[in-house]
């Protein structure tokens, strides 16, 4: 069988030790997914492109800085949805490859008529990547991808964008698959420098976040003691920005994945999924055989990235999600841009088929919290995702869905006069 452009790309990236490809397939890059499958590479489907970038970051972080992953997305909306995660990787010096599909450039498409998502993908990517390039012909695919990997893994690390025309992905090439090259130089966390600003947000906004963080810190000793006692020392922890990240900072001697305070919410779950996938691959098989990956999230973030739990369930990853209940009982005013999500965690977990347990603050001791976490971990032996809210501060029950205010149904429109065509529905 003659190779296609996607076969060349998959062979090159396999040679460069890029093992995970996170993204959502679309009509523009279906050929790339087919090429990855033929090469035996791992394409992991996710629900949102931003999560793809977070998951790729999780692979790098969990590997100790030795392995990079690829964000494999369509052009246009796929690129724009992933921007927040790519920008965070740029700021935190996380190497990754961002592979996107451009418009068709063959002889039959020179007029650019009837092209899908005809936007400047490289122009969108340049401000948040070290380099954004595209092969001009199938003969340049290998050189462009190898250059992209080298730039991404040369300090200071960062993401690199590559746009491949969608017809180049599926068309047969004139030559053969590339021969193997010497492996790329190893990467290491020791080569990264911390360039994160300490207070990048306006002071009133930081004050609001700090108020919730301080409220959570009051219960942090109990939670940290329980986590340290119940969870193996080699476990990986990921947290969403804000109070969850502040709590995570108080754990010592652990692998902690946490973003800067101004990062978008929804970081913890997809990053934990990427970390868990790497851990499973490093062990060679069962994701349930080693230490779990723990994500500290909150209801707002779960509403954004909860669908990624479908990937965790399909992969049977040992993922424990801790959901601290903060805000109402702390006495702190919530930040104006956040709402207190009335999320029924039990129903949320059940909708994905996951076990769920609520740890009430009434227990009041680190021993009780430790016992609850150990009980949750026991169910991970089968590789199931677990939602476990430690609830250190929440003393008032959340209103049930029956007590939430409901909007009044819109009254039906009046009937049209006789002889007049009915108006369109509102």
Overall description:
The protein is built from 14 helices and eleven strands. With 426 residues, it is an alpha/beta fold. Strands 2-1-3-4-6-5 form a six-stranded parallel beta sheet, sandwiched between helices. The chain has a five-stranded parallel beta sheet with strand order 8-7-9-10-11, with helices on both faces. Helix 6 (141-152) links the parallel strand 5 and strand 6. Helix 1 (5-15) packs across helix 2 (30-39) and helix 3 (49-62) runs parallel beside helix 4 (77-91). The protein is globular, with a radius of gyration of 24 Å.
- What characteristic shape results from the CA principal axes? globular
Q: What's the number of helices?
A: 14
Q: What number is the mean pLDDT? A: 77
What structural category characterises the helix and strand content?
Answer: alpha/beta
Based on CA atoms alone, the radius of gyration comes out at 24 Å
Report the major sheet. 6 strands, parallel
β-strand number: 11
Please indicate the percent range of residues in DSSP E strands (runs of 2 or more).
5-15%
Are there runs of 5+ residues with pLDDT below 50, and where?
A: 195-214, 327-332, 335-341, 391-406
**Between the first and last Cα atoms, what is the distance in angstroms?**
55 Å
In the sheet with the most strands, the strands line up as 2-1-3-4-6-5
Percent helix, as a range, is 25-40%
Topology pattern, helix = H, strand = E? HEHEHEHEHEHEHHEHEHEHHEHHE
